[in-house]
Amino acid sequence: MELTLGADVYYAEGLYGRLTHIVLNPKLRWVTHLVVKEKGQKQRERILSVKYIEQATPKEIHLICTKEAASHFQPFEVSRYVHTPTLGADISVFWSIDRQAEHYFPSDGTYIPIKTRAIPLCEVAVNQDVRVEATNGMIGRLRGFQVNPLGWKITHLILHKGHIWSQEEVAIPTADIESIGEKILQLKLDKKGIKSMNRRLSKQGI
Fold first, then answer.
1. Does residue 24 contact residue 34 with C-beta atoms inside 8 Å?
2. Taking the alpha carbons of 179, 185, 187, 190 in that order, is the dihedral positive or negative?
3. What is the pLDDT of residue 111?
4. In angstroms, rounded to a whole number, what is the distance separating the alpha carbons of residues 139 and 19?
5. Which is it for the CA torsion 45, 47, 48, 54, positive or negative?
6. 3-state helix, strand, coil in the chain (%, to 5)
7. What distance lies between CA 82 and its chain's CA centroid?
8. 130-174 per-position pLDDT tens digit
9. Other CB atoms closer than 10 Å to residue 164's CB: what's the count?
10. Which residues of the chain carry a pLDDT beneath 70?
11. Which DSSP string do the residues of 7-43 spell out, in sequence order?
12. Could you give the CA distance from residue 1 to residue 112 in angstroms, rounded to a whole number?
């Protein structure tokens, strides 16, 4: 089964939205949640467990749920305010309040808004902006993952590489992944190794 970032997501009544993030455990290499941006004016992002996935192709993901059930999925990001005594206070001390905090902006010197993500501890949410790095430099961007639906273990990452007029997708086994982060996915291979692997996998039909 392939989970492709940007794929259309459907519930029972029709189009729900678009897949924006895949939430995974970077150590155990399994997917736990999806983040979907709802269609419509508000375009809210909601997070849902992979247990709702019925089937998935590179272009579409179908869920086992109704529109009503989907409306109760938890928001992916939530803003809250933390008190700070002065405008010039060192806001770095507030980072420890929530490990997932990623934005903070001094307002009137009394409160700062912190945007947090509703993902489990020790997990990361990856999107199409993730850089895929070979041992000798950037090779492309993350496109998605191939997974085994029995446990949602990742079997391959899908790499999007090339220039705008010569783009291609490459499937790379998880054994060749060094680490997975929210900004960079590091491979154990160099660019030459990835190129030769692409030829081998194409012949195998992967």
1. no
2. negative
3. 67
4. 23
5. positive
6. 15, 50, 35
7. 27
8. 999 999 999 999 999 999 999 999 999 999 876 544 567 889 999
9. 5
10. 83-111, 162-167, 197-206
11. -EEEETTEEEEEEEEEEEETTTTEEEEEEEEESSSS-
12. 42
Distances (CA, A) of 86 to 28, 91, 132: 42, 10, 41
What is the distance between the alpha carbons of residues 110 and 8, in angstroms, rounded to a whole number?
42
Instruction: Print burial letters for 103-135: b (CB count within 10 Å at least 16), e (below 16).
Output: ebeeeeeeebebebbbbeeebbbbeeebebbbe
Cα gap 32→44, rounded to integer Å: 20
Token pair listed for 10: 């459907």
pLDDT at 150: 93
- The count of residues in the chain is 206
Query: Do residues 56 and 62 touch, judged by C-beta distance below 8 A?
Result: yes
DSSP assignment, residue 130? Answer: P
Tokens at 100, concatenated: 């997932």
Distance of alpha carbon 50 from the chain centroid: 13
Of 169, 130, 174, residue with least CA distance to 148:
174
